[in-house]
Amino acid sequence: MHIDAEEIKEKYGQGRLIFEYFGELTQELVPFLFERIEKNLAGEEHVLNKVRRIAKICLEILQNTLHYQDRHELPPEVRKSLLLIYAKDGQFFIISGNSIQKANLLKLHGRLSKANRLKASELEKVYLQILDEDELRSDGAGLGIIEIMRNSQNKFRYEFFDLQEEISFFLLECLVGRDKSRETLEIIPTAETPMVHLNAPKGIMSLSGRSIPHNAISFYRPILEWFDDYLAEAQEHTEITVKLEYLNTSSSKCLLELLKKAEQIVEGSRSVEVKWYFESGDDDMQEVGEDYALIVNLPFEFVEFQQI
User: Fold this and answer.
1) Residues 75/7/148/131 CA torsion (nearest 10 deg)
2) pLDDT for position 139
């Protein structure tokens, strides 16, 4: 099997192609390619806040590929590398490919899988940890993967294809811009868990009903993970609506964690408002909201309503 760049473009390309390179990579070529990438991105509208991130990802990919080629012997016929950048609806898709020895495949897969399991809030901590590890003194690939994800702010997609008996082709896709498949999250209410509505484009988050699950951590995990993704590109104004009848202790801890995450939005120039609804006469739920208002640095609006 050989590397077919046109077939990869046809299968994985999304939107408008704004940069492409397919060929053997050398140290002398990297600055030239990097300059071309920056030039092509400069003509894109509404991309100023993403240009630096895209350029950093591409540079990291090119350098990682070079480092790998320098340290591992690859047959001349499979030394070609691929780099594509597509633009579509405010999103940018970076697709890269290079050959690797199958002996290194399992290790690379493990690093990518581990990176994909990290929450956005954990990336910086892991990045600093790797800086101090022996891994950095070898090929730096572990640090490079984390650095790419820090700039992408999205999960990786990747595949491996057989080229030769001992060689595979590694294809990596990075998305810069909010992943539209994760823009909204809807959870249907039950007798123990609330209705959840999360909408990133509108900056709206609401919880209503009962929150008394036996395992609150399990229930709130996807909500907190969604919120981690939202923090990367939060709207100018975010509205959090809480309208709960009952709230057990473990749920209250998870809700507090969510509100503390929302404080990170306020640290910039953006705003957050919490609307706390409580039924007339329900002093307990009113006091819970007031306690939260004292703990977190967010504006609260308390809304009393009559149960129908």
Assistant:
1) -20
2) 45
CB 120, CB 264: distance < 8 Å: no
Buried b (16+ CB within 10 A) or exposed e, 5-18: eeebbeebbbeeeb
Question: Using CA atoms, how far apart are residues 59 and 57, in angstroms rounded to an integer?
Answer: 6
Please check the confidence at residue 297 and state whether its pLDDT lies above 70: yes
Are 86 and 92 in contact by the 8 Å Cβ rule? The answer is: yes
- CA-derived radius of gyration, the chain: 23
pTM for the predicted model, two decimal places: 0.63
pLDDT digits (tens, 9 = 90+) for 234-282: 889 999 999 999 999 999 999 999 999 999 888 767 899 999 999 998 9
CA distance 267 to 248: 29
Domains recognised in the chain with CATH numbers: 5-176 (3.30.565.10), 180-305 (3.30.750)
Within 13 Å, how many C-alpha atoms sit on residue 81's CB side?
23
Which residue type does 140 have? G
